[in-house]
Amino acid sequence: MAEKARLSWLVTLLKAAVSLGILGYIFAGVDFAALWARMDGGVALTALGALALLQLQAMGGALRWTLVLSAHETALAYGAAWRNVLLGLFFNQAMPSTIGGDAARVWNGYRLGLPLGLSTRSIVVDRVCSFLGLIALCAIGLPTLSEQATDPLVVHGLTTLVLGGLGCLLVLLSLRHMPRALATWKGAAPFVALSNSAWLALLSRRTAAPVLALLIAPHLIDITVVWLYARAIGSEATLVQMALVFPPAILVAAVPVSIAGWGLREGALVLGFGVVGLPADQAVAVSLLYGFSAVITGVIGGGLWAWRDPDGMAALWKGRARLDGATTAMPTDGATKAIGPDGAAKAIGPDGAAKAIGPDGAA
After folding, report:
1. Beta-carbon neighbour count of residue 81 at 10 Å?
2. 3-state SS class at 216
């Protein structure tokens, strides 16, 4: 156990070194005096709008997760889902550590009463949906960026990244068609279940349309935030240009070799701004402003989770605590299963009467 902890911290230190190394290299060529001169009252007002948009993005993420769960015949109170997303933002952005935001969300989902397997699959599927939207935006902009880029290495690198991400998604989605003999193998079964869960969310008649809309919407918010910051510092960047360069930057930042994408995002944006004819110092300023906004959003998220969640930060030291009314299973037989305050599952029939469900599943 101690060795795993040491290894986790070593990986974190290496990621920090990558982030600091890339940022140091980029900052060496930046005129910070000119950069600071761009930071005026207009930027401060834009920051307030950016924080509001990023909170709206978190609310959309919470809605998408509830839809994924709904496709699995499980309902989760929106407030609980929203706090779960805020908790993930806190660990991802404001508290770089060996505990990832998704791991914190899985734990919190289990604490809310979700089966551990469902909590894990639903959050991974939620991330897959977000990644699918990001890949789609990168693929749409790839031809235009390829025409404008003068360095073939940039084009080849971006193409490889997009095709690699798309390939991973296709592999995951194709696992549901794996031969039964292989699908039931212990090592493959969890991945097949994940593939089935992804298809449930994407094809469910009840949830497919809003889930598909929420694939793209959060990334459009990110693009808007970056464009607003670009305009606030006096850049002539257009919204279309930001739509071309920012999704690839986020895709690069998603490679898990740095702390919360710091360094990778800045480097990718410097390259992207160069491709569309914008100065590198503007790319650095915009990326830093976006990054700081994400950190503040994470801090706000952690505070709201600690304040509004029934257990708050104290839950970190507690075992699983089912929250009354937080989760409701919706089986296909029309009965509703709810988690009562005593932690016992109760079947609620058409007559409204609640009956305790025993260990054998009988009501």
Report:
1. 27
2. helix
